[in-house]
Amino acid sequence: MKLVIAIVRPEKANDVLEALYRANVQGISLSRVQGHGGELERVETYRGTTVKMGLAEKVRFEIAVSDSFVEPTVEALCEGGRTGEVGDGKIFVVALEQAIRIRTGETDHGAVTPVGT
Amino acid sequence: MSGPLSLAQATGVNAGDTAWMLAATALVILMTPALGLFYAGLVRAKNTLNTFMMCAAALGVATVAWALVGYSVAFGGDGALIGGLDHIFLQDVAFEPRDGTTIPHLLFMVFQGSFCIVTVALVSGAVVERMRFGPYLVFAALWSVLVYGVLAHWAFGGGWLQDQGTLDFAGGIPVEMGSGFSALAAALVVGARKDYGRQALLPHNSIYVLLGAGLLWFGWFGFNGGSGLSTGNSGVLAFTNTLLTPACTLVVWFLLDLLRGGRVTAIGAATAIIVGCVGITPAAGFISPVWAMVLGAVAALPSYALIVWRPRTRVDETLDVLAAHGLAGLTGILFIGVFAQFDWNGVSDGLLYGDPAQLGEQALAALAAPVYAFVATFVLLRVIGLFSPLRASAHEEALGMDVVQHGEEAYVTGEGAILVTAEATVEDEVAVANPR
């Protein structure tokens, strides 16, 4: 069981979701985050104030999956999120100690397997 | 004591009429930023500023074009197709009343100019979220002269439609059909947004939409109420109808929403206000209050149908200018032909009151204005497109037009922003969130 965390471009979030659905990955959390990962900074000007935007808007996916789903999930994230330019984001796969479905109390594999599959 | 530029009023100028027309003009000017709010709410957050700026741009370039050339093209002579160059650079436009009015010529010019501005802004609704700002500015300047100026001449400036008896109280021809059918052409030339039909492209702030619609309605009392160019009966009738017609459109729109989805929608309500205001625009001073209410109900139907159907097509006429303005304006223009009433307008009867010819005169306008607007806009954008690409790249479109075209964001937090001072080298940059 792994927790897959992916930071992607907001404008690619819909493509990532599409790719995940196609790969049959269904339990997904998504949040808007700000981050900096070495991409070229944008310069914006507000009246006399010119600033470099050090943080870029990103979307963070969190997906808990059983071991056999790690690879398809990562592939879908790469496929949906890639533009080839600096700033496409990163994927982190971390070990997951325990997962519990609140409604039923199911744990681990049962908890990360979406209902109806 | 009185010199050529005396402080006294010129002879023939009526104080009451002038006072109302000054106020009415200011009301119409408010409609352009109101439209900016309405449009900005309907697009995605990353295109908020660009969308509003397309309206703000009209306040700049359309005003300049109007003062330099547009006014003369529309009102500078009696040619059948275009005015002339009599008033180019506002030559001979001063305090003497404009012929046929009791208000100073300057005021007449600026009142008509405010119509041109909002009409240019209306067309932008077809191309938001993808058109580049530079070509848009060129388009706005040329369109206001070549399309708006010409149509305004046909309808108001002594052109062929006005000559042959077509009635258009406040701009069903140049403003509503002019913008609506130009919008269709613009959408076809510029092309659909890259995600159109593939992803849900939803309004990002419905409150902007409602507030913008409310302010537009407010401004429309000057737009229609001022189009009598006086405080006389036709202006009062138009003012009243500007409340009655949109109210009926709202109620009918609620019913249509209920029938279609079981729920009355807020953005539907905002749309209904616009459709109602547009529908009554050409007819405002020509039909009785009761027929104005009927028009409100009737105008809802075709526009509602087109708004439901259009997104299923490949035509990304993004903010439905054709449905809300072109089609509702056309409905209003034709409605006059049947329900105009001499007892109310002192000008002409429609079919129902004994003059079937009026309907023919209206139908001719409903055919000619859309064709001219569509063809002229199509050609104009194609020509501009020869010199400069009309739309942003797919990558820029994904980033959003605010950052790409303007280097600003509507909802910026400033977190992590690093101040760039004129003298600062890279080492001297100061983090705003953590100043040294």
Provide structural commentary.
- The complex is a heterodimer of chains A (117) and B (436).
- Chain A is an alpha+beta fold.
- Chain A has 3 helices and 6 strands.
- Chain A has helices at 13-22, 70-81, 108-112, and strands at 2-8, 29-35, 42-46, 49-53, 56-65, 89-95.
- In chain A, helix 1 runs antiparallel to helix 2 (70-81).
- The relative contact order of chain A is 0.31.
- Chain B contains 15 helices and 2 strands.
- Chain B is globular, with a radius of gyration of 22 Å.
- The N and C termini of chain B lie far apart (67 Å).
- With 436 residues, chain B is mainly α.
- Chain B has helices at 15-42, 48-75, 105-123, 133-155, 160-163, 172-190, 206-225, 233-261, 266-283, 289-309, 321-339, 342-345, 356-387, 394-399, 401-406, and strands at 417-420, 430-431.
- Helix content of chain B is 63%, strand content 1%.
- The chains are: A alpha+beta (117), B mainly alpha (436).
- At the A-B interface, strand 3 and strand 4 of A face helix 14 and strand 1 of B.
- Strand 4 (49-53) of chain A pairs antiparallel with strand 1 (417-420) of chain B.
Descriptive tags:
heterodimer; A: 117 residues; alpha+beta; Alpha-Beta Plaits; 4-stranded antiparallel sheet; two-stranded antiparallel sheet; 3 helices; B: 436 residues; mainly alpha; Ammonium transporter fold; 15 helices; 2 strands; 1% strand; disordered C terminus
Termini Cα gap of chain B: 67 Å
**Low-pLDDT runs of chain A:** none
Number of domains of chain B: 1
Assembly of the depicted chains: heterodimer
Spatial arrangement of strands, main beta sheet of chain A: 2-5-1-6
What is this structure's SSE topology?
The complex is a heterodimer of chains A (117) and B (436).
Chain A: E1 2-8, H1 13-22, E2 29-35, E3 42-46, E4 49-53, E5 56-65, H2 70-81, E6 89-95, H3 108-112
Antiparallel strand pairs in A: 1-5, 1-6, 2-5, 3-4
Chain B: H1 15-42, H2 48-75, H3 105-123, H4 133-155, H5 160-163, H6 172-190, H7 206-225, H8 233-261, H9 266-283, H10 289-309, H11 321-339, H12 342-345, H13 356-387, H14 394-399, H15 401-406, E1 417-420, E2 430-431
Helix pairs in contact in B: 1-2, 1-3, 1-7, 2-3, 2-4, 3-4, 3-6, 4-6, 4-13, 6-11, 6-13, 7-8, 7-9, 8-9, 8-10, 9-10, 9-11, 10-11, 11-13
